[in-house]
Design brief:
Elements (H helix, E strand, L loop, with lengths): L2 H8 L5 E4 L7 E5 L2 E6 L7 E5 L2 H10 L3 E3 L8 E5 L5 H17 L3 H6 L4
Antiparallel strand pairs: 1-2, 2-3, 3-4, 4-6, 5-6
Length: about 120
């Protein structure tokens, strides 16, 4: 997946926006102010930090060398994924799961507004 496709995919989700709270080189994708993906789109190799269920995070790390505990994040809830090291389909699923986990933590009224009960 290219940096452009990664950005476009992250922005496809309801109410998702790209912000730059850590400087212009770091894209932070949020939903209603809560982060679900963090990446430096110009970095080589391209990596992205994604929120993950703790048990699933461990399983993914054990089965994919391109997935490691989240860099500068909670190692229990975040993974850092080297984009070129995983299939696009898996990466898309992980991004969607990250978005869904963040949305699940929002108040019910906001979840319903996002069409994610």
């Amino acid at each position: 997946m290219t940096p452009e496709r990664l950005r476009a995919f992250c922005l496809e989700f309801n109410a998702s926006v790209e912000e730059f709270p850590f400087g212009p080189e770091t894209s932070v994708f949020t939903v209603l102010g809560k982060m679900f993906a963090l990446t430096a789109l110009d970095a080589r190799p391209l990596t992205v930090n994604l929120k993950c269920d703790p048990d699933e995070a461990i399983r993914l790390r054990e089965t994919h060398t391109a997935i490691v505990p989240g860099w500068h994040m909670s190692k229990r809830h975040w993974n850092t994924v080297t984009v070129s090291g995983v299939p696009d389909r898996l990466l898309r699923e992980m991004i969607e799961d990250s978005y869904d986990l963040v949305v699940a933590g929002l108040p019910k009224a906001e979840r319903l507004r996002l069409d994610r009960p």
